[in-house]
Amino acid sequence: MIIDKIENFRLYNYGPAWQHIFDFLSKLSPDMQDGKYIIDGDDIFAIVMSYQTSAPDAMVFESHEKYIDIQTVITGAEGFECAFSDELNVITPYDAGKEAAFYERTSHGQTRVDVYPGTFVMLYPHDAHIAGLMVGAQTQLIKKVVVKVKKEFLKT
After folding, report:
1. In a domain, 10, yes or no
2. Is 156 part of any domain?
3. Torsion 102-71-132-27 (CA) sign
4. Between vectors from CA 95 to CA 22 and to CA 93, what angle results, nearest 5°?
5. How far apart are CA 15 and CA 86, in angstroms?
6. Which domain CATH number covers 30?
7. What is the rounded CA–CA span in Å between residue 63 and residue 116?
């Protein structure tokens, strides 16, 4: 997992795809419509969505195998919990159609990160995560973007 300011993206050398992703992220606007935005076909795309954050009680961890997630909020603030997928109990094994596996939410070994406009979190396939969590005591409507990039497109 990486968490940083969007303006610091040049500190990471992940090749040309990285630049395309952050060119897109630099143009985010609260006026963007929810939906899918193509950056490079099915290899790199973004999903803009709006929803209410919630308490973590009924939420479960997820991870992906094919894509790396780069997530940020456009408006509001969103909490994430992260854990290593190999240390969690699997609820639903990886399903290629959903491009996700789901895990039990445990009480140990988790990292909590709050993301605000101007910051991003990058989640690798081994990073199980729960997004959409409340920051503070109140739920809030957020607008966010998830950029999905096939892991082989980022030079490491």
Report:
1. yes
2. no
3. negative
4. 110
5. 28
6. 2.60.120.370
7. 22
Q: What CA–CA distance (Å, rounded) separates 38 from 43?
A: 9
Strand order in the sheet with 100-103: 90-95, 100-103, 61-63, 127-133, 78-84, 111-115
Phi first, then psi: give them for residue 141, nearest 5 degrees. -80, 125
Side-chain-side CA neighbours of 34 within 13 Å: the count stands at 7
Nearest to 48 by CA among 33, 58, 29, 63: 33
Q: What is the pLDDT of residue 109?
A: 59
User: Does any domain span residue 90?
Assistant: yes
Where the chain has pLDDT below 50, the residues are: none
Which residue, 30, 89, 37, is CA-closest to 63?
89
Residue 58 pLDDT: 75
Q: What distance in Å separates the CA atoms of residue 33 and residue 55, rounded to the nearest whole number?
A: 26
Q: How many structural domains compose the chain?
A: 1
Domain containing 115 equals 2-151
Residue (of 79, 115, 78, 83) closest to 101 by Cα position:
83
